[in-house]
Amino acid sequence: MPVDINCDMGESFGAYQIGADDAVLPHITSANIACGFHGGDPTVMRNTVAAASKLGVAIGAHPSLPDLVGFGRRAMQVTAQEVYDLMIYQIGALLGFTRAAGVALRHVKPHGALYNMAAAQQPLADAIARAVRDVDSELILFGLAGNYMLTAAKRAGIRAASEVFADRNYLKDGALVPRSRPDAMVLDVEEAVRRAIRMVREGVVADVEGNDMPIRADTICVHGDGPHAPEIARALREGFGAAGIQVLAISAPNQ
Prior knowledge:
The strands form 2 sheets. This protein has a 7-stranded parallel barrel, surrounded by 5 helices. A two-stranded antiparallel ribbon has the order 7-8. The protein is an alpha/beta fold. It contains 8 helices and 9 strands. Helix 3 (about 80-100) runs parallel beside helix 5 (about 120-135) and helix 4 packs across helix 5. It has a single domain (about 5-240), classed as Glycoside hydrolase/deacetylase (TIM Barrel), CATH 3.20.20.370. Helix content is about 40%, strand content about 15%.
C-alpha cells in the first residue's frame, strides 16, 4: 500500500518564524496549514497555499483551539458545540484562500490539544467529523490511528485517514506520549525512518515499553516545528523509496 507524508505547516505569524516550511515541502505529499488560532495569519495562509500548490502538495486545514500563546497545545474546557463552531470557522478561512488560488482543499487535521482531546472524547470527535462533513463531505479527516476520530468520521459518512507519527513515541494504549515527558519525541532521524517503515510494511510500532502494537498507517506526520523536520521529511521520502514503498497523497484519485 502507498503511504502519504503530511506535515503541519504555515504556523508562522506576524514577525515570528516557526518551522522550515520551504525545506520540508519538497519531501511531503500533504500539507496541514494552520488557520490562525494556534499559528498562521492571513498572509502566511495565502503564501503557504501558494507554495504547496506550486509543488503539487495536497492542501488541508489544520484547525486548533484558540490558543496562540500556548501554540494550541494546552487543553481547554470546550463543549462539543464550541468545537463544531471552531472547526467551521477555521476550515472556512482556509477554504477561502484555496478557492482564491484556484486549488482544492483536500483534508482536515485538527491540531495539538484539540487533536488529542478528540482522540479520547467521542463527543468532541463527533463534533469535528460533523463540521468537516458540513463544510464539504469530500474532505478527508486525519485522525490518530485506532481512536475516536476515525469512527466518528465513519458515523458522519466521510472518509478518514489513519495517522501515525514518525517523530513521536506511543503509550501502550496507542495514545501519544505527552509532550511533558522527556521521551515524547523521536529525535534520531534514522530511528524515525525505521519505525515509519515498520508501521507501513508490518502494521506495528513499538510502544515506550518496547512492545509491538498494531497500527494502521495511511498517512505519516512530520511536525513542521520540530528541530529536525527537514531532515526527517527528506529521510522518510528516501527511506520509503529504498524500501519500495510508494509515497502518494491520501487524496490522490487512485487512493
